[in-house]
Structure formats: C-alpha cells, structure tokens
Amino acid sequence: MTFICSETKEIIDTYVEAYNSLDVPGMINLLHKDILFRNFSNGVVNVETHGVQEFRKLAENSTKIFSSRRQTIIDWRAIDGKIEAIIDYEGILAVDLPNGLIAGDRMQLKGKSVFRIEEGKISLIEDYG
What we know:
alpha+beta, Nuclear Transport Factor 2, Chain: A, six-stranded mixed beta sheet, 3 helices
C-alpha cells in the first residue's frame, strides 16, 4: 500500500470543503493553472475542461443547479501517482433538469474522484459516478 502524505490529503479535504460550501473561489485557489477536469458517466467522458478559466465556468454553473451538495470521502487509495477518493455524494436540486428530476429532489450516489497534485496544487480531477 502506498502512503498518502498528510499535505496531499489536506489539499483534497480543503477542496472538498469548498465544493460542499459552493465556494468556487475556494476551489479555484487549490487548482494548478493547467487543471484538467473530466467527468465520466457510464465509462464515457461527458464533461471535460482544461485550465482554471474553463473549470471556473463549469463550477459556477454547477453551483446554480444545487441548493446544497455534499461529498464525503469514505476511503483513500494511492495509485500510480494519483489519489483515488471513494465518495458518497448527496445533492438537493435547485432547478428542474431535463431528465425529469425537479427542484427539491435529492440525488444520492456513490462514486470516486481521482486527483493528481503537482507543485502543491490539484492538476487533475476525474469524477466517476
């Protein structure tokens, strides 16, 4: 088993706290300027951003979709220079979605997020749900 240093865990925990608080500036402060973000659904990339500005737009838009959201990291793994965080997710919608979910509906799922840290900043986030 590979050791995950406390500094790396602290960076990721701080990012998750900002995410849960809908604090986009707090999230952005932790990101490498060349951040690569990907969201996978059913094994397919359905969202991808490159760089802080694209990520900021996506993050700002997603804060409008949820009245509250919470990621809880339930386990950690270090794999090939990346950190895998196993996550329980819960969100309450603030708007109606095209898939039939409506404002006030609660979404719950389990997934994982993969992070890479470079130069003390998060340079990769891959979400799998």
